[in-house]
Amino acid sequence: MNRRLLxxxxxxxxxxxxxxRAGVFEVSLSSDDGDEHSLRWAVEQVNASADAxxxxxxxxxxxxxxxxxxxxxxxxxxxxxxxxVSVGGETGYNSGVLLWTTNATTSFSGTGAYAATGSxxxxxxxxxxxxxxxxxxxxxxxxxxxxxxxxxxxxxxKVLHVTGDIxxxxxxxxxxxxxSALHSGSKAFVxGDIxxxxxxxxxxxxxxxxxGGGMTLVxxxxxxxxxxxxxxxxxxMNLTGQLEIGGDLSGSISATALAGDGAYGIIGSSAxxxxxxxxxxxxxxxxxTDAAGIYVSGSSLDGGSLSDAAEIxxxxxxxxxxxxxxxxxxxxxxxxxxxxxxxxGASAYAIRSGKFDGAGGFVDNTAERVDRVALxxxxxxxxxVFLGDGDDVLxxxxxxDISGVPELLGGTGDDRLVFSGWNGAYSSAMQGxxxxxxxxxxxxxxxxxxxxxxxxxxxxxxxLRAGGxxxxxxxxxxxxxxxxxxxxDGNAGGSLRVDGGYAGGGSVGLDVGAGSxxxxxxxxxxxxxxxxxxxxxxxxxELAAAEPSLLVHTRSVVxxxxxxxxxxxxxxxxxASLSVVEDGTGATDWYYGVRGxxxxxxxxxxLMPFLAGPIESFVPRFLERRAYGGxxxxxxxxxxxxxxxxxSWNSEELRxxxxxxxxxxxxxxxxxxDVLYRRSGKLLYGAGVFAGTGTETGSVSTPGGKxxxxxEGTFYSGGAYGFVSRPGLxxxxxxxxxGLHELDVRYAIAPKERVAAGSIFVxxxxxxxxxxxxxxxxxxxxxxxxxxxxxxxLAPLTTGRLVVEDDERIMGIxxxxxxLNTDCPGWYLVAEGTVRFEPNPLNSVSYPETGVxxxxxxxxxxxGGSVTIGNRAGGVLDPVxxxxxxxxxxxxxxxxxxxxxxxxxxxxF
Length: 909
What we know:
This protein is mainly beta. It has six helices and 79 strands. The strands form eight sheets. Strands 3-5-8-11-14-17-20-23-26-30-33-38-41 form a 13-stranded parallel β-sheet, with no helix packed on it. A 13-stranded parallel β-sheet has the order 6-9-12-15-18-21-24-27-31-34-39-42-45, with no helix packed on it. Strands 63-64-65-66-67-68-70-73-74-77-78-79 form a twelve-stranded antiparallel barrel. A hairpin with a 5-residue loop joins strand 73 (807-820) and strand 74. The protein is rod-shaped, with a radius of gyration of 53 Å. The termini are far apart.
């Protein structure tokens, strides 16, 4: 039934069910002489009335009592004028303003103030040895003061029942001890709200705003309760029975023991049920020891039942010089805290299981029971947490702040600490937990798990950060990982040791260094599949040069796919992988390292040397075209067209980051024309143009003989030359040209790629003839060659995009030849020894996505020689032709060589 409707029916029933017999007595006098229409007269009339219900109606606004009124023997309702009424005065010992000795029903219509003073044992409104029922709202103000002891505002020695709200001001003040603003000998029952101001004060001890055997408050506690004891024993609520608050405790409760022990916002020996929660303020402060905000000394604390949490969104504080607790219960607690819990003192707890021992400490309950505490967003705790015996559960979620908690103790039993959407650290303050659950949305660091001996569960979407700053963490129990175990902090060398079983399914993040890494060490059984997420700290080239790094160690034989790496080759040119090793003692290790380069990376290093090699063969030489003309029977002053063709067989060993051997052959044909050919005195000079093409085929392999792929290219070139010579003494020639190189790259496995690159070259050559006798001469020569070949990019599947850098270099060639039949018609022979020097034979390939650059180099020096056999006829228009064969070998490698054969003809015209 609706609460307000119930009030109305009870009120109407009281006044009108037997209204024919009800007596109404008017108080119009302020004096207390017993005359008609005085309050004393009205009380006497009520007692003498045969009616069951009576009304005292005040028409005066003040009544001053000279002594205690007679004890009421009938029910009575009080009606005040619009301006209210004030009743007060001296009542003496063991008295009250309104006093019954039988079960009584009363009500207060309008506003009224009932105040009294006396020596001791004074009550404002009391049913002595009986129950008291207040129909409707209790809007009256009651203020009682005694000079010595026991002051009561509203008191029922048995049940106190208020069918409406308590909205007035009720206060009790005792000079020495024993002040209770609201007092019930058995149980108080308030069907409405407590919205008024309740105050209790004593000079020494025993001040309670509400004291009784128990209490049920159907509505809210939105008012203010203040209890102050001059020495010790201050209570906002002091109950020996059960406390039930159905609405919200949104007001404030304050208890202060100014000079001693014992201040309690709410204390109850039976269960405390806070159905509507606490959104207000509860404060307890004692200068001595034993202060508690909510203290259930003999039972449980919950929000309606043990399966319902009491919602604490307000502020609860307790402070003392000794033991203090914001919330404490002897048996089960079920709390959801989103507010502030603060305790200060020598032994201070924000939440504690147990009770005070009366000597500045605590007593623990050794009986098993379950505490369930959730600390959510907005929760701020100051002081320790101790959940005692039993299988307790504490949940940290959201923005819960436990930075002010020096100890977070699970106590004994099978206790579980749960992180749910919470970011923070598991620290050494957290002790006594057998289970650690890291839930979705949580990121929990492991500051000191060396003493943790229980089970750890990391759920999907959760992160457990371990092994930070290169140190080791340990879980002495088991670990179930469906989320992420994160050891990555930029410093390789951290570790996580798990003594018990490990169940995979999630991920583990590890830092990898040069020969070192974070380590996951597992001593128990291993199940499931775990993905290893790797962060490579050094450069990849440093990683490639180091030994493989140990990532996971188990002390049992484990399936190879228990730990896998995603994208394990995502390091540009390097082939990185996870290797599994059984060490022969029953242990299994997972190593990660670079086992070498991808085949396509090795192939890429050989492309530029292969592509640029034909340039030297395409440099036109006056040596062959001129065919060593002299003075006798030879007419060298006539130019003409020339053609030459040849083939070379080449092999080059590259050493460095990606050593390989590139070998193949090159065939070419070249045409030229001496556009200008003149004699000036003893000098010949001229200029011409040339063009040609060639094809090149080859293959690339590792030094160990592994085939990496094939190459096929075409080279187009053209240019111009100029020369000056003095026949029989010297010659000087300058040539320049450009080329286009097209190359097909056929990897052993990856799809074919095609590239094109341009080139330019400049060559300068000087030769001298030193006659040794008839038809014989020495022929020393030097040649400088500069070349530039444009770089290009490729994208093999395994390495990703790569860039072959521009190739630009200078090389020098020196030769010493012996010439036979230098100046006569007919056959001639040139035998030449040659040395070739390349100062910086480096070849560079970069991988932009990974920032890796690989370099290889060939031989600086090559030595060899050639033999040229030619024929020059004596006629002016007779052709000149020649055949040349030569070879070049490297100084530092037996796998590097070049063999060439060339034929040519010049036709004068």
